[in-house]
Amino acid sequence: MRIGDLATRTQVSVRALRYYEEQGLLASTRSRSGQRLYGDAAVNRVRLIRQLYGAGLASKTIAELLPCVDAKVSTPQSRERLAAERDRINMQIAELMIARDRLNDMIDLTSRPNPKCDYV
Asked: Which of 16, 25, 36, 117 has the fewest CB atoms below 10 angstroms from its CB?
């Protein structure tokens, strides 16, 4: 499939797909006219890349981990790296939960009329 088709199927911009290629995260072949061509497996690859980016991993980290994913092999180093990323995400979740709870408190406090406040 062409790059535009992959972009449509994955809801990722063409520019992002080119960036993934530049970073070594995604591979394509070229047609005779020089257009990028991708196999059907590229859809799942792009979705995985997006999930890893969404989890906060940097492109360098993703590039280091993808060969292990491709080979379906886990090394002590890759497991350690994944565990560190998981721990980082867990910390972010905990911080977000605290922020959410504070927002809930603020909503509760501001939802009650206060005669001293002009903006009721």
From this structure: 117
